[in-house]
Amino acid sequence: MKILILGAGQVGSSLAKYLGSDDENDITIVDKDEANLSSLQRHLDIKTVCGHASYPNILEEAGIKSMDMVIAVTKSDEGNMLACQMAHTLYQVDKKVARVRTAEYLHRKELFSDDAIPIDFVITPEGLVTNYIKRVVEEPGAEQVFEFENGLVQLVETRAYAGTPIVGHPIKELHKHLPKTSMRIVSLYRNGRAIPAYGDTVIKDGDRVYFVTKKDSVSKVLKEFRRLDKTYKNIIIAGGGHIGLSLAKHLEKNHRVRIIELNKERVIEIAEELEDALVLHGNASDEELLLEEGIENTDLFLALTDSDEINVIVSILAKRLGAHKTVALVKRNVYEDLAKQSEDVDMVISPDQITTSGILAHIRKGDTMMVHSLRQGKSEAIEVIVHGDEAHSDVVGKTVEEINLPDGVVVGSIVRNDEVIMGSRKLVIKEGDHVLIVLSDVSKIHEVELLFEGHFD
Amino acid sequence: MQFSIVFKTIGLLLMVFSLTQIPPMLVDFIYQQNEMQSFVSAFSLTLLSGFVLWVPFKNTKKEFRIREGILVVVSFWFVLSLFATIPFLFSESLKMSFSDAFFESMSGLTTTGATVLAGLDDLPKAILYYRQQLQWLGGMGIIVLAVAILPMLGVGGMELYHAESSGISKERLTPKLTQTAKALWKIYISFTVVCALGYYLAGMNAFDAIGHSYSTVAIGGFSTHDASIGYFNSGAIESVAIVFMLLAGINFSLHFFVWQKKNALTYSQDSEFKTYLFILLATTLVVGFYLFDSGYYLSASESARQAIFQTVSIATTTGFASTDYSQWPFILPILLIFASFIGACAGSTGGGIKVVRVLLMFKLAMKEIKKFIHPNAQINIKLNQRSVGESTLVSVWGFFSLYVIAFIMILIALMFTGLDQVSAFSATAASINNLGPGLGEVAANYGGISDSAKWILSFSMLLGRLEILTLMALLHKAFWRF
Fold first, then answer.
1. pLDDT confidence of B288, banded at 50, 70, 90?
2. A428 in any annotated domain
3. Are residues A118 and A191 in the same domain?
4. CATH code for the domain of A94
5. What band does B275 get if pLDDT is binned at 50, 70 and 90?
6. Is the domain of A173 the same as that of A93?
7. Which three-class secondary structure state does DSSP give residue A440?
8. pLDDT tens profile A136-181
9. Percent of chain A having pLDDT more than 90?
């Protein structure tokens, strides 16, 4: 596919990296800043064009006429929208993806149609981040939760800790511990490397485990890998921006939410919108304020201000003062790595990474119903619908064992008539099944797609 | 430094380039001049050496970085020149010394076109063909060729591509590097085919037509005759040569855009192209007028014919001769050699400093003058209506100073080997600019100079072909500190 990426910021660069690693993609990237481009040009096999991403002459220089897709991720929302508009009207580009940060544009969904602003897929980092944090709050202990089939099936990422029932034992014992629960470990990473998850594989402390299960058994399974944080009750949110506010709105019914905001006007605004949550005017790095609000009894501290530095520092402070778990929103990669090394920040959330995953998932989504990229785009979990009968498909009527799945590709589960069946070697695949497949290595995707594609000739 | 990937790549490249020994075998098969043995040995030795280098490291998963790229490119040019000597050394009819053979292959691959051989007309056809083919392979750059045909070089290919010429305008024509390299070679091959046809129609026999088309589009200058193009004494052949030297001296990216947009006007929008034509035109006029005025040629038409051919040939750094121009009034050969310093356009197959660099330096000089008059003026240096970045301008000056330093050092070294000043000056210019023929002792060929001078000149040719920086970087101590 020929893809034009506008904007070589963090999202643009990582998109170029992941999309460019696929031999079938031809990537061209446009940015105003030569410095952003020269380092990309050195390391990636892509074309770079320096110039203003919403000027027609620059777009033409980048070869927009032959592009299959335009992804606009420059700093400016307006520029992104305008570029998509031009790609549509002047150059008839088939698919347009744009990042729009400002919530004000997003209130009117009808704006983004072929008659108005022709964008096929609007990606809103704030919305994605809010959803992401919501799921983290709802499943304590899980580092990431991905939903399939409207939440019927969940793919959960967690870390295995020493002293829990399963650590030090082979995987097959899980089924003895949890005889009634259907679940399946789909991939296992030790020290960043994938290791095959067989029944005899022994799980060790520090392993990163991905498992598939039904929504209601997530916490039961999680207990096998780590001492469960009790459900979060007391939550402090530092920063009342869009993300902070919408989270607070979502959480205030079932949790004790306090939200700290520095700006007086904004405090009044959010106080108006919130019912049960307590809105505090003050500085999140004010030790006295945190102590007064009972930081030592806080289950979850979310640092969601605009500033990376403040988020990291405030998280550390909250942790030292006794908050049980801290989460920091960090935009820049450098801080992200630093913050991950700090033991006082339990979880780092990167909007750029979430945005990248979101866009990648959207692009990958052809015939597949759902795509989630895992491990910063290196792995992928997809859901495909099986088409065709035994004569017209390579998979229908066969057991999972008989299908020639590439290495590192695992069938996690199957949803058949709203019933969840966990993947196993003897499972027979039928027409109309929704199959959840996990690929440790994204590059295998073409093989998998070919396999599941029915052939109608 | 990851030596495993360096060895692996060089081994792989050697195996691929061993195949280039096959066409000369076919030529010998046609003419039956007993040269088969030398090419078969060259083929098997190259293939075997490549295989031996490649096998131990074939599974290495190391990645290319800048250093490895530089090392592979420089050593591969060197290694390939080394292996290219085999047919010269093994040929019964040549009996060349190793220094001579290395000089000849380096001169071939770098498209310099300086030769140590005399009596070309009597040599076996296979050897003559092989010399022409060396030039053709070197013309577009052996690494560009490798990138085009070896997809397994992958991202590593990029480091190589950048290292082969630190070129000023390394534009990506297409998103994928392999496609860019392929596009360049497609244009290159089409020029070669049309040029060969042109020569054939203008009266050369098939062998000469193919051979000369190779060295014309490569801006090389090797010929199958001692008298070069002058052997044919044909206006038609000279015209074909002029057209294709001119075309090959243009940036191939520009050819690509013209071909892509199907609009020949694209040429006229490029400032480097316009400057290139202007320099050639001005030089031709001066040379032609002086030749006629001084009475060297009696007719104006003869003056014009020789002036046009010789100017295009020398200024694009090809080095074909339609006449013995070293006998011209002394100022003219010197003028032409200075024109060869400017050379062809960046991204062409020609040598020299490159028109675009000279153009930028000229604009910078004009800027200084304007700034002197208007101290507060903000003057941007523009190329094709676009401002050129400060870093590019600095690198142009850096390149120029390195060029001058390298030139002086080589000139002095050559004079130490006993060459007189005119020969040493012209030989240095002819080698570093990848031009070919010189003046004085080296006007006809380089057979008469000492072995040490030949080695110095071989180095100088590679220095010019790799645009100084790549080779110099390898010689810098910072390169080896890791």
1. very high
2. yes
3. no
4. 3.40.50.720
5. very high
6. no
7. coil
8. 787 777 777 888 877 788 888 888 887 787 888 888 888 888 878 8
9. 13
Q: Report pLDDT for B62.
A: 77
For residue A382, list its beta bridge partners.
A371, A437
The answer to whether the CB atoms of B174 and A47 lie below 8 A apart is: yes
Q: Please report, as a single letter, which amino acid is at residue B362.
A: F
Q: Is A356 part of a structural domain of the chain?
A: no
Range of lowest pLDDT (A383-397, B145-159, B187-201) = B145-159
Query: Which tokens sit at B181?
Result: 């390299």
Nearest 5°: CA angle at A415, between A409 and A419?
145
Domain locations in chain B? 365-480
pLDDT for A228 beyond 80: no
Cα distance between residue B190 and residue A276, in whole Å: 76
Q: Is residue A165 part of a domain?
A: yes
In a domain, A136, yes or no: no
Same domain, A112 and A146: no
Chain B (143-172) residues lying within 8 Å, Cβ to Cβ, of chain A:
154-155, 157-158, 162, 172
Residues A118, A8 share a domain: yes
pLDDT of res. B204: 92
Calculate the alpha carbon distances from A179 to A182, A183, B51 in Å.
Answer: 8, 10, 58
Please give the pLDDT value at position B421. Answer: 92
**Which residues have CB under 8 Å from B193's CB, separation 6+?**
B213
Of the listed ranges A259-263, A355-359, A435-439, the least confidently predicted one is: A355-359
Identify whether the C-beta of residue B203 lies closer than 8 Å to the C-beta of residue B237. yes
- Highest mean pLDDT: which range of A267-276, B321-330, B398-407: B398-407
CB pair distance less than 8 Å for A28 and B154: no
Q: Do A45 and B162 touch (CB under 8 A)?
A: no
- pLDDT of residue B306 exceeding 90, the answer is yes
Contacts of B154 in chain A (CB under 8 A): 45
B373-418 residue pLDDT tens = 999 989 899 888 888 888 888 889 999 999 999 999 999 999 999 9
The yes-or-no verdict on residue A377 having pLDDT over 70 is no
> Please, which contacts does B424-428 make with residues 24 or more away whose CB atoms are closer than 8 Å?
B425/B337, B426/B333, B426/B337, B427/B114, B427/B453, B427/B457, B428/B457, B428/B460
Number of domains in chain A: 4
Q: How many contacts, defined by CB atoms under 8 Å, are there between A and B?
A: 26
**Contact state of A28 with B158 under an 8 Å Cβ cutoff:** no
A214 and A287 share a domain? no
Q: Please report, rounded to a whole number, the percentage of residues in chain B having pLDDT higher than 70.
A: 97
DSSP string, B93-151: TT---HHHHHHHHHHHHTT--------GGGS-HHHHHHHHHHHHHHHS-HHHHHHHH-G
pLDDT bin (cut points 50, 70, 90) of residue B200 is very high
Among candidates B155, B175, B389 on the partner chain, residue whose Cβ is nearest the Cβ of A47: B175
Determine whether the interchain pair A28/B175 forms a contact, defined as Cβ–Cβ distance below 8 Å. yes
What's residue A331's pLDDT? 82
Amino acid present at A114: D
Using pLDDT thresholds of 50, 70 and 90, give the confidence band for residue A419: confident
Considering only CB atoms, which chain A residues are within 8 Å of B177?
Answer: 45
Q: What's the CATH code of the domain at A161?
A: 3.30.70.1450
The range of the structural domain enclosing residue A159 comes to 141-225
- Whole-angstrom CA distances from A213 to A152, A184, A207, A400, B241 are 9, 7, 19, 18, 75
Distance CA B24, CA B37 (A): 11
pTM: 0.79
Distance between B460 CA and the closest CA of chain A, angstroms: 28
Residue A41 forms contact with B (CB below 8 Å)? yes
Answer whether A430's CB lies under 8 Å from A386's CB: yes
Nearest CA in chain B to A21: B155
Q: CB contact, 8 Å: B177 with chain A?
A: yes
